[in-house]
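Here is the promised in-class demo. Please do not try to memorize the tokens; focus on the logic of going from shape to residues.
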């Protein structure tokens, strides 16, 4: 995958550069979100980001000539997909934004990443998958890590004022 120039320098493929940029930008998102959300109304942010997403999705659909596929889908199915998708994104972002307003950015961000653990938990009742010992261990480790991160190792913080932010961030992960 890597190429060497005449002088032995490693020349990376452009994919590695794109992945590196994505990782750097993603790692900045918690801090940027915290700065962005301060002083702006949660509903304004949700409306603006949802509108922007809708416009981009519609433009992408037009660009890829996929609008024709919607003609074969019933209005009821389209309405159901739009409402479930919109409500899920709305509640995920709402709870995350409320949590980030009450907690340090990195804490809310870490708590928001409980969603993989919730996928495993909900795969039992919905998909009837077995929860193995390894999966249970992963779930316990996820929640333990979030507790340590959210409290900075001081469990008495759970009684304090940041508990509301923690609960809101957990709900954000649930809707993710």
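The designed amino acids, position by position:
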């Amino acid at each position: 995958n890597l190429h060497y120039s005449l002088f032995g320098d490693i020349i990376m493929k452009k994919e590695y550069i794109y992945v590196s940029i994505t990782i750097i930008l993603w790692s900045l998102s918690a801090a940027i979100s915290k700065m962005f959300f301060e002083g702006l109304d949660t509903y304004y942010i949700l409306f603006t980001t949802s509108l922007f997403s809708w416009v981009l999705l519609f433009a992408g659909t037009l660009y890829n000539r996929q609008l024709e596929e919607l003609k074969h889908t019933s209005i009821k199915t389209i309405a159901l997909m739009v409402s479930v998708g919109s409500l899920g994104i709305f509640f995920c972002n709402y709870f995350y934004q409320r949590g980030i307003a009450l907690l340090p950015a990195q804490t809310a961000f870490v708590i928001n990443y409980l969603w993989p653990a919730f996928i495993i938990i909900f795969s039992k009742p919905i998909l009837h998958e077995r929860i193995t010992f390894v999966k249970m261990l992963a779930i316990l480790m996820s929640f333990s890590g979030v507790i340590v991160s959210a409290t900075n190792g001081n469990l008495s913080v759970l009684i304090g004022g940041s508990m509301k932010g923690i609960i809101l961030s957990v709900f954000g992960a649930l809707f993710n």
